[in-house]
């Protein structure tokens, strides 16, 4: 089986990147990450960002874009991603005001995502959807909303970016879901966590929490995942130390 690429979701470094966007990209490359998934572009024109990525030897393979951004000017977002050499455009989160409240509203969203995804595909990119825990709450037909989304959209239009932390936090088995979406799961967020006294998630460096990461990695390989993406929503150490520690875990447990 082909080894998966190792990327970083740059939301992990959001505060540092707001101060020194280019410098943080350089540090990510120096740590050994092969690519990055953007959560904003630091105000850089696309050509400038592409030149910087090329200089650093990083692949800007994906970007998280809000549903609002996709609705506001889809063509602008497509053009930017194509200019930097990205392949994936991912809807990462539904804000409460955008979140469907019943099955009919979910189905309306599925139709919209299918339409967006078809346009994205027509222009040479791939639309993905990234889950949290709320997609596993409620019912749409015979499924939870997460399962219904991918049952009622086509693989050509909407691919899966699975976050194993949120799947497990929602009480589901990440390994079963990875297997279920094999062939439709190019991007996998590799994360770890524990629970605090209020049973809320505390995101941790890889290997420090309750997720069976070796099993997740093996399942991801078998499912055809292209990119393992390190992300830590909130770091317990300085974020640069956290991503270095997580990459070191991957070196010990996967890359060597």
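Sequence proposed for the structure above (256 residues):
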């Amino acid at each position: 089986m082909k080894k998966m690429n190792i990327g970083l979701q740059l939301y992990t470094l959001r505060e540092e990147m707001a101060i020194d966007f280019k410098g943080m990209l350089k540090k990510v490359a120096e740590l050994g990450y092969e690519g990055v998934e953007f959560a904003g572009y630091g105000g850089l024109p696309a050509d400038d960002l592409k030149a910087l990525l090329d200089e650093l030897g990083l692949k800007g393979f994906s970007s998280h874009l809000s549903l609002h951004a996709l609705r506001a000017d889809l063509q602008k977002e497509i053009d930017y991603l194509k200019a930097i050499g990205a392949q994936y455009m991912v809807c990462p989160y539904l804000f409460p005001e955008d979140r469907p409240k019943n099955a009919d509203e979910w189905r309306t969203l599925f139709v919209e995502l299918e339409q967006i995804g078809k346009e994205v595909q027509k222009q040479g990119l791939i639309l993905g959807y990234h889950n949290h825990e709320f997609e596993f709450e409620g019912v749409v037909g015979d499924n939870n909303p997460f399962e219904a989304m991918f049952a009622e959209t086509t693989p050509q239009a909407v691919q899966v970016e699975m976050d194993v932390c949120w799947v497990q936090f929602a009480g589901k088995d990440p390994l079963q879901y990875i297997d279920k979406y094999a062939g439709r799961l190019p991007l996998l967020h590799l994360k770890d966590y524990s629970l605090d006294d209020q049973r809320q998630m505390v995101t941790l460096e890889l290997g420090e929490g309750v997720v069976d990461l070796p099993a997740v990695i093996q399942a991801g390989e078998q499912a055809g995942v292209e990119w393992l993406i390190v992300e830590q929503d909130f770091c317990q150490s300085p974020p640069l130390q956290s991503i270095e520690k997580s990459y070191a875990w991957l070196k010990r447990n996967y890359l060597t």
